[in-house]
Amino acid sequence: MQSGIYGGSTPLESDIxxxxxxKDIPRSIRGFLWKCLHGCxxxxxxxxxxxxxxxxxxxxxxxxxxxxxSIILDTVWPLVRQLWSKRETSCPLISFGSILGAGLADFxxxxxxxxxxxxxxxxxxxxxAHLIWKIRCPQQMGARYxxxxxxxxLQTDTKRYGSKALKIETVSETxxxxxMNEENLxxxxxxxxxxxVGIPPHCPPGRRSGFLDEAGSPTLP
Length: 221
Fold this sequence. Notes:
Blueprint: H1 13-19, H2 27-38, H3 60-66, H4 71-84, H5 96-100, E1 108-109, E2 112-113, H6 115-136, H7 148-154, H8 158-161, H9 168-175, E3 211-212, E4 218-219
Antiparallel strand pairs: 1-2, 3-4
């Protein structure tokens, strides 16, 4: 693992186990991480599975990061780096270890922990890795997808979660600099539907460019 992501030290295995229980990690991703750590998926040397794209041993690391012939990898991770660069100057190298330990990200500036940056890294890395797995594993494709911004917003509901609710300031700090038309959003944008996150897609000539809102519906800028 890269110690720079974790405040200058390499996290303990026991800390990684604890991190996947965090309430701000969706249950489906917690299950995915748990199975990865337990080696539950029928891939790798034990199952004698080879990658159908390149013929190499089909480990989880190979599926998520290493396959040289995967169009999915050539699409997802560059988009992660592009989105990260909208706010940060450099993107850490994504490894299998940093995926499993994303919940322990501990970026700091002059000793102060950067909560928004840490949560953004966790969200981008875990959502992307889980998406790659779901695309790679057809039986997972029917699973319902919930946009991470919507997941964050729902967790700010104090009536439902009480003292365990996510602070509005934490959500704002996490997504700062990544929202479409951010300078014109009202202060109460967290409770507004249709707030967009991401990068304008590249459409084929002759098609209108649009965006997807957090419900997955196309919205024209």
